Amino acid sequence: MNYLVAAALGYLLGSLPFGWFVARLRGVNIFEVGSRSSGATNVRRVLGKGPGNLVFVLDVLKGAAAAGWPLLVGLHRPILATLMLHRDQHAIFCLISLAAALLGHSFSCFTRFKGGKGVATGTGGLLVLLPSSTLVAAIVWVVAFYATGYVSLASILAAVTLPLAACLIFEGRPLLVITAMLISLFVIGRHRANIGRLIAGTENKFQKKKDEA
């Protein structure tokens, strides 16, 4: 029952469609413009820096909340005390909740199972579970983005970096390292169309929405 509670609450947190909501406040259906994604990148491309940054922060926070709330309420303690599980298992509820949040963000029940690619939400959750490795991946993202101008390429490289950094730094136990690998594969899979365009040379570089007079 506790596992189901973790999955359900994680999914509901991840499903909160901040990108769609912020765009609707501006009279825009974010699923009909730009890349047709409700992620912060598309919101920023279509509506500008302010709305895009707001969506990014909100998506990071919901990922952090999904990964962190089981620790706050101590949901795992009764099961751990009863079954004497391996020490890795203390994070299992956090991981279930975060995984469900990524699914909720990408396939939100509030927007007919459409959503974003999960980069910001995954970043928020991993900042709670693997802070040092996530910061390394974030640095790679910034360097790659400013060097190439491609948000998709920066996100893919950051996703590849995350499990490598987790293995080298080994700040997390094996379960967390494996989770980092799975989340990275999920993010890369969500960028499969971008990968095809990058290979074909047709991927668009990020361009900010020009301010209107």
Q: Any idea what the radius of gyration is?
A: 18 Å
Q: Helix content range of the residues, please?
A: over 70%
- Poorly predicted parts: 78-88, 209-213
* Total domain units: 1
**Broad shape:** globular
- Helix count? 11
Structure, explained:
- This protein has about 210 residues and is mostly helical.
- The protein has one domain.
- It has helices at about 1-15, 20-25, 40-45, 50-75, 75-85, 90-105, 120-130, 130-150, 150-170, 175-190, 190-200.
- α1 packs antiparallel against α4 (about 50-75) and α4 (about 50-75) packs antiparallel against α6 (about 90-105).
Keywords for this structure?
single chain, mainly alpha, 213 residues, 11 helices, disordered C terminus
Helix and strand topology:
Blueprint lengths: L1 H14 L2 H8 L14 H8 L1 H25 L3 H7 L8 H15 L12 H11 L1 H18 L2 H19 L4 H17 L1 H9 L13
Helix pairs in contact: 1-4, 1-6, 2-4, 3-4, 4-6, 4-7, 6-7, 7-8, 7-10, 8-9, 9-10
Quick overview:
The chain is mainly alpha-helical and 213 residues long. The chain has helices at 2-15, 18-25, 40-47, 49-73, 77-83, 92-106, 119-129, 131-148, 151-169, 174-190, 192-200.
